[in-house]
Amino acid sequence: MPEHKADAESQVKRNPHPDFKKVEGSRPEFNSSQNTPIFTKTKDPDWKPGQGANDGGEGLKKQHVEIDPYAEGRPAVFNYKLLISAITPRFIGFVSTRSKDGTSTNLAPFSYTTVVNHDPPIFCVGYSGGFDNAKDSLRNLTESGECVINVISEHYIEAANFTSINAPYGISEWAMTGLHPAPCTTVKASRVREAVFSIEGKLVDTKEFESRATPGKKTGVLAIIEGTRFWAREDAINEDHNLIDPNILRPVSRFGGITYGRTTEVFELPRPDFEKTKESGVLEGYVQPKAEGQ
Fold this sequence. Notes:
Elements (H helix, E strand, L loop, with lengths): L8 H4 L7 H6 L12 E2 L36 H11 L3 E2 L1 E6 L6 E6 L2 E6 L2 E8 L7 H9 L1 E6 L5 H6 L10 H5 L3 E2 L8 E2 L4 E14 L7 E15 L13 H4 L2 E3 L5 E3 L2 E2 L7 H7 L14
Parallel strand pairs: 1-14
Antiparallel strand pairs: 2-12, 3-4, 3-7, 5-6, 6-11, 7-10, 8-9, 10-11, 12-13
């Protein structure tokens, strides 16, 4: 039997509800009428330099608990559960891959995904488990050197989540979910036709990580991927092909456990310019050299 993946549900126990459908049934219906995020003010529109947090100092009254990720007796899965609940919300990379010989495909969500550069377009995807116990997605990616990263939107979140099922290698997530594959230009893997935005990618490099708690055990792989083509739904992209309409994209984010998030309220904050702000006088008394600890 293969070793359990580090994020296997049997170990992590993301679902805190013995009867999830009962709990879900007690909740309000999904608000489909709120199709456009509401723009609000920030919590403190009159914030001034030097003012600090906008909670009136309440946060400073609380103490912090120091957590050693390698403390004796602390299971590694505790760090996993802690991090996915703290580093939120996270973008979800919906990764499509194809084996080198073309006999098998994989489609799965990974919330250890982000963009790290634009020229060239570079993305990172983090996989739990080492090469010796590789997920199907990682196996296909390293063999073929190709993938597609799709952005998950509200209109197909249920299907996207279902691809996380622990199906055996070779079983099609496409068939089980009813999602539709679409052809790509620079890679052989398929993009998700339902996705508003997709990225064709070529593998640049990988980095495998070893457990601190259990030396010798490989616990994760970082894949660095270069974007080679973008696909945007025609009603979501502007004429210059450089902006996606968030009202069409409606991206879904990941929180801890089995929790997902949607963006229903947003606010805007311009970046300040130092010289202009200094000239306005509001920085008087606050322009000081850095001190120890700052």
